[in-house]
Write a structure and sequence with these properties.
heterodimer; A: 218 residues; alpha+beta; Heat Shock Protein 90; 5-stranded mixed beta sheet; two-stranded antiparallel ribbon; B: alpha/beta; 5-stranded parallel beta sheet; globular
Chain lengths: 218, 145
C-alpha cells in the first residue's frame, strides 16, 4: 500500500472514530431525556392516584430537558462542522476555530483519561489556507498523543501563534509522572500528514512541549 | 426490606432522574458519579444491586466491576452501556455482571432486571445460610472455629 492509500484508510478510520464518539454523546443525551420523560410520566401517574403534583418540580424537569436539547444541538453542530471540513481540498479556515473544534471532539476521551484540555485564546483570528480535513486529522493526532502522555490528572494547554508567514499550534503539557507508552510519536501516519501539509513537528519531551509549524498558505 | 440499589454513572442528570424514579418505586437508592466514589461506598455499605455505567472518567465500568467483585462478590451488577456494540457488556458478564442494558432503556426493562438480580442474590444468600446450618447440624463443634 502506497503512502496515499495508507492515509486514505487511516483518514476514514479517523472519521469513524469521531462519528462514533459523537454518537455516544448523543446517546447519553437521549438517555437523559428518556429518563426525564419517564419521570414526568411517573409523577402524572402518582397525581392520578391522588398525590399532589408540584408545578415547580415539573418546571424543573422541563428546563432540564431544554438544557439537554441545547447540549445535543451543540454536539450535532460540531459534528456537522467536522463533516463539512472534507468538502474542499483547499480552503481558508480560522486556525483557532478549527483547533477549538478538535478539542471539543476530543474532550470525551480526555475526560475519561483524567486530562483537561485548554485552548488559550488569542486576540485576533489567524486565517490560513490549507486542507481542512487533513489538518484536523494532524491536530487531533497530536491531541491524542498529548492526552495519553498526560493521562491521570494532567492538563494540555493549546496556543495558536503566528509570526510572519508561519503559524504554530503549540501543545504545552502539564503532568506529574508521564505515561511512557506513546514515546514512539510521531508515527508514520503523522509523518505523512505533515509532509502532505508541508508542516513540521517539534517534540521537546524535556520541556513538555509539542509544536506543529506550517506556512499560512499551502 | 426494600432492595438496596446503587447507580453509578458520571452523567449526573441521568443518574439523579433514574434514582428518583426508582425511589418512587420504593427502592432504597444511593447514587455515585464515579467508579472510585462507588468503590468507597461499597466498602462501607451493602447493596443488593449496582447499576454500573461502562464509560466513565477515571476508572471505567469494567475496572470498577472487577473491584466490586473483589470487595462484595455477592452483589449483583447490571452494566449500563451507551455503546452501539454489546461487546463491552459481554466482557462485563464474563467478569461477573448479571446482565446489561443499552441506554436509553425502558424503565420496565430495568425494573425487571433489578428484580431478577435481587431475587438471584436473595436465593444465593439463602443457599449460603442453609449450607452454614447444615455444617453446624452435622458438626456442632464447627461453631467454635
Amino acid at each position: 500500500m502506497g503512502n496515499i492509500d495508507k492515509i486514505d484508510v487511516e483518514s476514514l478510520q479517523f472519521f469513524g472514530k469521531i462519528v462514533a464518539s459523537v454518537s455516544h454523546e448523543i446517546k447519553n443525551v437521549m438517555a437523559i431525556i428518556n429518563e426525564k420523560a419517564g419521570l414526568l410520566k411517573d409523577l402524572t401517574l402518582m397525581a392520578e392516584k391522588g398525590l399532589p403534583l408540584d408545578p415547580v418540580r415539573i418546571q424543573t424537569v422541563a428546563n432540564e430537558v431544554k438544557f439537554q436539547i441545547k447540549r445535543c444541538d451543540t454536539i450535532v453542530k460540531n459534528m456537522n462542522q467536522f463533516a463539512h471540513s472534507a468538502d474542499e481540498y483547499s480552503q481558508h479556515v480560522d486556525l483557532e476555530t478549527m483547533t477549538g473544534l478538535m478539542i471539543l471532539l476530543s474532550e470525551r476521551v480526555a475526560s475519561q483519561m483524567g486530562v483537561t484540555l485548554n485552548l488559550i485564546s488569542s486576540d485576533k483570528s489567524i486565517i490560513i489556507k490549507t486542507n481542512p480535513f487533513l489538518l484536523e486529522f494532524l491536530i487531533w493526532d497530536c491531541l491524542q498523543f498529548t492526552i495519553k502522555r498526560c493521562a491521570n490528572t494532567g492538563t494540555v494547554n493549546i496556543i495558536i501563534e503566528k509570526s510572519d508567514n508561519t503559524v504554530k499550534v503549540k501543545y504545552l503539557l502539564e503532568y506529574g509522572t508521564h505515561n511512557k507508552a506513546e514515546s514512539s510519536f510521531p508515527e508514520e501516519r503523522t509523518t505523512i500528514l505533515m509532509e502532505t501539509l508541508s508542516a513540521k513537528l517539534f517534540l521537546d519531551l524535556e520541556n513538555h512541549e509539542l509544536m506543529i509549524s506550517m506556512s499560512e498558505n499551502i | 426490606m426494600n432492595p438496596r440499589i446503587m447507580i453509578v454513572d458520571d452523567e449526573e442528570s441521568f443518574t439523579n432522574s433514574l434514582a428518583e424514579r426508582l425511589e418512587l418505586r420504593e427502592f432504597d437508592v444511593t447514587v455515585s458519579f464515579s467508579g472510585n466514589d462507588a468503590l468507597e461506598k461499597i466498602k462501607k455499605l451493602n447493596f443488593d444491586v449496582i447499576i454500573l455505567d461502562v464509560a466513565m472518567p477515571g476508572i471505567d465500568g469494567i475496572e470498577a466491576l472487577r473491584e466490586i467483585k473483589k470487595i462484595k462478590p455477592l452483589t449483583e451488577v447490571i452494566m449500563l452501556t451507551g455503546h452501539a456494540t454489546v461487546e463491552t457488556a459481554i466482557e462485563g458478564m464474563k467478569l461477573g455482571a448479571t446482565d446489561y442494558l443499552m441506554k436509553p432503556c425502558e424503565a420496565e426493562d430495568l425494573m425487571e432486571k433489578i428484580n431478577n438480580a435481587y431475587n438471584r442474590k436473595s436465593e444465593h444468600e439463602e443457599r449460603i445460610r442453609d449450607a452454614h446450618v447444615k455444617e453446624i447440624v452435622s458438626s456442632p463443634m464447627s461453631v467454635l472455629k
